Task: structure prediction
Amino acid sequence: MTAVRTSSFPTSTVLGYPRIGPRRELKRALESYWDGRSTREDLHGVGSGLREESWRRLDALGLGASPSNTFSYYDQVLDTAMLLGAVPKRYRGRSVEDTYFAMARGAEGIAPLRMTKWFDTNYHYIVPEIGADTVFALTGDKPLAEVRQARALGLETRPVLVGPVTFLLLSQAAPESPAGFAPLDRLADVLGVYEELLGALAAEGVDWVQLDEPALVADRTDAELAAVRTAYERLGSLTERPSLFVASYFGDLGDALPILAGTPVEAIGVDLVHGALAYGGPANGGSVDARPVDARPVDGGPVDGGSGDFSTLDVLAGKIVVAGVISGRDVWRTDTERALATLLAVRDRVDNVVVSTSCSLLHVPYDADLETDLDPALRRRLAFAEQKVAEVVELAALLASTPRGGAAPSVRPASAVPVGGSAATVEGSSATVMSAVGPPKPAPVLAAPVEAGSAREGRSPYAVRAAAQAEHLRLPLLPVTTIGSFPQTAELRAARAATVTGELDEARYEHRVRAEIERVIALQERLGLDVLVHGEPERNDMVQYFAEHLDGFAVTRHGWVQSYGSRCTRPPILHGDVRRPAPITVRWARYAQSLTGMPVKGMLTGPVTIVAWSFVRDDLPLRDVTFQVADAVRAEVQDLEAAGISIIQVDEPALRELMPLRRASQDAYLEWAVDAYRRATSGAGDRTQIHTHLCYSDADQILAAIDALDADVTSIESARSHARILGEPAVGDFGRGLGPGVYDIHSPRVPAAEEVEELLRTALRALPADRVWVNPDCGLKTRTYGEVEAALANVVTAARRLRETAALTTP
Result:
């Protein structure tokens, strides 16, 4: 084994930084380029400016080491596939940009690659296709180009790469692959490209490279762990390479930790916010966490943990340990005293500790100081990316000033923080530290206690409900519907923004909303859909809209976070007890239903998804918070039913996303998540048909839990993943309606009727015709009316072609 190098590492760093721009500059540049309103050079100019702005800001905040190659025009995993030359044949023969965006979004006649969630986050990545004959070759120079760009500013950066093991574990086998083939089988060939890239970076004078391996915090097989050893012994043994920093996050490394420690890599990153070594994790006196997003227990146990036992880190003696003590996944200020105590405990075990974030700051907004409309007491408790970088710098200074064996310095209490002040005031040196505890919080009011499974009572068996619904609704075989939203036009978004600023009064805005609902209902009737939606023109986002109408939430003006590509969301801040002061959706649902004799779905977001896509208070077990939200959704279901809405859809696309990465915690989570959904929906009568929806989240891994939701109809993403879910044997065990998506709405391409028909035939081979619904993969919000009208016309045509044939074979 090559001896460990003695390369120095600055005392503070972050694993990544937001890349969309403080004002979503990247979103606008991408959409302008895709629409043909700007050039490739225009797009690259925006990207170059955003990179420079980020590096300069990190340097101004005093960060010791800034990352590069974290910027992406769509997704870092897709970037890695391009860098390695892993481009399926059907995308070749185009310019670099056209190939890249065709893989991400599709092109005329070519479907895009599959998309799914990045571990347990709401960020989506593009899934590479790797085959036995994929030819890997270093393609392009993006990591080197960014190093050079930063150097032109007088700044040294650390290139960040998706690690080879994680890249292959996140990939899928190409369709033509032989039986038994797995992308990890190609590790040796991929490592050859990484070796070439590391050599090029060394020749460029790069001191450090960061290799992200988050896949190692999930359960891994012996063969996969052996691949980790092979990869990092081989890369670490190179004679011409930068020093290697292997970063892990979203949990603890478990069995992978001693394996990495035994390789020649110089630095290893450990997430000290989530998992066994987290505040409140098992090693620190808490309970097993069933939500790796934070360190709280989910079983009603104590929220705060005790002092930690970091003996598992003894294997890292001699390594540089990059300690992730600042959460990259929430918006709460760090408890400085606890974080410093953790750092001191780690330093007692290892020789060299670097202060860092638990993961990339990609998952939080830019700057809490921009949120001047928020309550000052709440603002003092918040830390976005800017504030978190300052916290990293301050903790590094505190750690450096504390001698080994000495007492930790006292920390200024949060009450000393001026209203509107940032986490630190930086003047080229260290800033002023402040505690994260913030102002006193009100005593929590817990949701009513729920025994396991008790929330599942209340509705009749499905056979009884199905008969009542069939008599009431009288729907045809293969009923056609959509998921909920219709295109949010520029005019509609402008009207909403003008209402917020006061330029448009409420009466004129509501007139616009009514007109849009009328347009959507008329369009669906003309196209021949069987179950209609009102199109959600009054909603900005499927979670934010509800947060704006529930007590206990705050919403931001500038708190944008990237979801995928140009798609950004503003996660609400769930900071208090959740209550529904008044009905939220009833008015517009009732209006839509008054326009037609066809059934119109009431559209709600489920409790798990509302919680998953919010930044959630940290003083209650997550289960209790979710049950509070479930009670609010339950009241809305009952009011919709009382208003005459016969079909109510309660979406739970985050059900899989929120699941813990380690199997040991998954069953407990799924039990209470299912309980929360049934708590929200079980008050509906038998004639009311309850729908749910899941998309883009590897739902095939939780089919038993989806079945346990007991929804009358489940719509699920299928078109983007080429009907992969229909190959799961458990799908055939669904005893209720199922709508595998037949139209990928994350691509601008319009599927032909023949393509939709083939997807429906696949569904009919897996399911009885009387249980198959016809719908897109997801909502239509991001598409144009031209695309939607053409696509839905083809969907209706395909369903009608098969309806007569299906009727002949249905008992």
Q: What stands out?
A: Residues 279-307, 413-454 have pLDDT under 50 and may be disordered. The longest strand covers residues 320-326. The chain has 23 helices and 21 strands. The CA atoms of residues 514 and 591 lie 8 Å apart.
